[in-house]
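Dear support,

Our group has been running a series of protein-ligand predictions, and this particular one with magnesium ion is the one our PI (initials K.S.) wants archived with full inputs and outputs. We had some confusion internally about which version of the output was final, so please treat the block below as the authoritative record. The input we submitted was:
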Amino acid sequence: MSSVAAAVPAAILARAEAAYLGLALGDALGATVEFMTPREIACQFGVHREMVGGGWLKLRRGQVTDDTTMSLALGEAILGNRGRVEPLACARAFDGWMRGKPPDIGNTVRRNLVLFRRTACPEAPPSEHDAGNGAAMRVLPVALATFGWPEAEVRAACRAQAHVTHNNEVSDAACEFLAVAVQDFLRGDPLRRILRRRIGPLLSVYPQFSFRKRVRCANPSGWVVETMQAVLQALLDNGGFEDCVVDVVNRGGDADTTGAIAGMLCGALYGREALPARWLKVLDPAVREACIVQARKLLVRDGK
Ligand code: MG
Ligand code: MG
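Confirmed final output from the archive:
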């Protein structure tokens, strides 16, 4: 672990907060239309762009799902471990989160946390089938805690948290891409430069992530490849936070997770001012506060 300057510029802190709030906003907006098709969404909402709650989970307005609450649990584990991303601490945090009976939980997450309870081993067995988006959706606290670290250490920390439930190289590739992209955005790098620098290397090893098709990615499943394709397409097709998040959740499918990941990236890219005030107003107040506090604590830690 390397050290970074103790003083983090205010602009970077603000973008980190926006990334965490963006994750929660995208999750809460998308959850309303999770598992719906674009046609069903259009019939019911026209364009779904307001925080109304509901959905298959029957959520309150502004309520978030596992994407945000697992991220917060992971962030607490990192903070409780002096900023280190330690598999056993992560596994205990996720297990504690599952004991709280969250409204939704992914199949891979559940299966491998049940296995952890049985074996006490915090690393899931490698599986070519565990390429769901459940590790990628919660990677933000790692990106914040490792900001300023050498890239190889950032990537290792991503895998440490991911492998508790998803020990899969395609999932790893997505987690690592998202973490380094968030860090690039926090530094203020523009979108096009990040995409040039990060997408090429990703696609050269994992061409399945290619999203430059003329066909609009609709109904993205929980497979991390489809999730990433929809998010990256929406990121490139839109020039602001709200437009991007609205675009991606209206594609339906795993909309809370595409919304959460797009919201995280767009928050880091476009900053606090870009977050729609009317969405922030109805976001669960405890979650809103936790996102702000945790973003700051993860980024500015003594001894980091
Ligand atoms: Mg969810
Ligand atoms: Mg989901």
